[in-house]
Write a structure and sequence with these properties.
8 helices
Amino acid sequence: MQTYYFEPTGLADLRELAQAYVASLSSPIDSFLEEHILASQPYRILAGKETIGYCAVHEQKLLTQFYIEPRFLAQGQAVFWEILARLQVESAFVPTCDELFLSHALEHQSAIEFQAYFFVDRPEIEVGHRLYQGGRFRVAVEDDALEIERVALEFFDRLAERIARQEIFVLVKDGVLLGVGIIESSRLLTSHTSIGMFTVEKFRRRGIGRAILVNLKRWCYARDQLPIAGCWYYNHASKKTLESVGMVSRTRLLHIHL
């Protein structure tokens, strides 16, 4: 009977396997899942002394990656059993664009929750909804931080750091903050950038969120980046706004309890 070992390592030491994992996805993942993956502990999967794949566990209980090299796929079910038994994970974040992970996790599920939508852009879709025409869209500066925190509360984490990295944008008119945009360049999918926005509550339903997203998409394409996005599965307003600017979702993030 084959014995499997799980060797803690760093993602940098699994570069080729990580690249193969990305190539296996049928559509991109957004920054929410990527952040969980990058904060996870990777394990090299060994069959005897041979590396056959890898997995990753977030906070010792959430499985965020499961990848087996194609020539070893026949061992996938046995390996997954061993992960559950020896790493003692309780659940998994599984994007539906990851067929391998999804198939194995479904065989052991005790419950499934819809976590998020992942979106890609279809630039050929015309934006048929009204866009806010006033105001100035620009990169945020340090002096914007206090007002962003006041209106957005804790919507943006590591705000000062993100402003310093020019990842935060603002839409302002006559010195009044109307909304905020964010970009997050992917570290796993190097040609993709996640985009998102927040509209100040009293200015909602005026096309401000759409205007921010359209500007963020333009920023991405000007830098040869493909814009992607995500939203919580039950945030219907965010989903509607993303779809109104030509973004579509064929991928869901599932929280599968094992």
